Amino acid sequence: MSATLAILTIGVVPVQAVLPLLTEHISEQQITHISLLGKMDPEEVREEYGAEAGEFAIPTRLRDDSLSMVSRTKVERDLQSVIEVLDNQGYDVILLMSTADIRGFVTRNAILVEPQRIIPPLVASIVDGHQVGVIVPVPELMAQQKKKWTVLEKEPYYELAHPFLATEREFIDAGRALLERGADVLMLDCLGFHQQHRDMLQKALDVPVLLSNVLVARLASELLV
Fold first, then answer.
1. CATH classification of the domain holding 207
2. β-pair type (93-96, 5-9)
3. Same structural domain, 47 and 107
4. Tally of structural domains, the chain
5. Of 37, 50, 130, 224, which has the maximum CB count within 10 A?
6. Same domain for 87 and 125?
C-alpha cells in the first residue's frame, strides 16, 4: 500500500506549486490538503483568531487575498487538534506548510515535517559561510525573518518584493540590490514564492537561489515510500 500525505496550511497557500515534487512518488489522489483558516470567511477569521493586544501575531493570507494578523496561540492550539485528527486517520506523513514561527506539535504515528524546525539549520548547512540575501514579501514578516535566520553564520541582508504584486522588474531589482550589498546566495522563504520566481532570479542574476517550499517538499517526498 502506498504512503499517504496530508498537507496542512494555516491560510491560503498555492499548494499546486509543490505537487509535482510530491507526485513523483505518490499519486495526487493520496495527497490531502487541509487549511485551518483558508476556507473560512475572512471576517470570521478576524473575530475568532485575531490577536489580542500584546499577543504574538503571525501574518496569514486569507481567501480574499487579504493579510490578517492572527493569534499564534490560537493557531497552534487548533493546528495541534487537526494534526491529532490526521494522525488518527492513519496518514503516513503530515507536512506543515508554513514559514510562520510555530512549532512544538506532536504526533503518535505519522511523521510530522515542520519547516520552522527543519529549514533554518538545513539552509545554514547548505550556505556554510556564504552571505545570504533574503527576499521578504511584506514588511509584517521582516521581524520574524530576522529572528529566523539568526542561525546563519553571517547576518543576512533583506529586501522586499511581493510574490503576487511585484512586477518582474521589481522582483529582479530586489535581488540585484542584495547582490550589490554583497549577497552571493538568495533565499525565498515565503510560500507565495515558487519555482518560477527562483528561475527568474537565477536567469537574470546568475546566482544560486534557495526556495524553502521546494526544500521542504523534497524532504517530505523522501519519506513517501
1. 3.40.50.1860
2. parallel
3. yes
4. 2
5. 37
6. no
Does 111 lie in the same domain as 9? yes
pTM score = 0.88
- Between CA 102 and CA 184 the distance in angstroms is 29
Among 35, 43, 40, 5, residue whose Cα is nearest residue 21: 5
Looking up cell 533574503 gives 134
| Spatial distance between the Cα atoms of 7 and 146, rounded to a whole number of angstroms | 26
Judge whether 119 and 213 are in contact, CB under 8 Å. no
pLDDT in tens, the chain (225 residues): 478 999 999 999 888 878 888 887 788 899 999 999 999 999 999 999 998 888 888 889 999 988 899 999 999 999 999 999 999 999 999 999 988 888 789 999 999 999 888 899 999 999 988 999 999 988 988 888 999 999 999 999 999 999 888 999 999 999 999 999 999 999 998 878 888 899 999 999 999 999 988 888 888 888 876
The verdict on 111 and 147 lying in the same domain is no
Supply the range of the domain harboring residue 90: 5-115+215-222
User: Does 46 lie in the same domain as 19?
Assistant: yes
Domain co-membership, 150 together with 161 = yes
Strands 57-61 and 67-71: antiparallel
